[in-house]
């Protein structure tokens, strides 16, 4: 009886893993990636602290100005980083890059895509005000979300929910309906 239960558990696990979302990365061991993930935690804390300060600003006009500048810069960096990674023919599930220029572009995609999610979830109306007027941003964001998911950087981590909420909320596809807070 115990063997039958063990076989059923193995079969259930295999069926769950084979029906996984194709946009989700399969785990692999990559020491460069593991080091980057630890460094990313510090970067994400800094980003979240900056957003906390923006929320506490309590001046909608200032928030609009700051978010406008931030989004323009974010998508410019995302566009430039995409060009570098494409030129290097780097695939998201490749081993973590060793070349400094490619490593920088890789990290910019990860950090800026996640940061966009944080900003959009905290300031949906303001973000939509700018995002909806820039058609190219949707293409870049869809690419960034897919890249992030396939790298495995956020898989099982504390920040995976941001990417999931952005995708489910419709960014890259359109429209997230939450109240600004």
Automatic annotation (TrEMBL):
The keyword Transmembrane is assigned to this record: no
Residues annotated as signal peptide: 1-20
Spans traversing the lipid bilayer: none
Keywords (A to Z) from UniProt: Signal
Record's keyword annotation contains Signal: yes
One Pfam family from the record: ERK-JNK_inhib
InterPro entries for the chain: CC134
PANTHER family, per database record: COILED-COIL DOMAIN-CONTAINING PROTEIN 134
Protein name as catalogued: Coiled-coil domain-containing protein 134
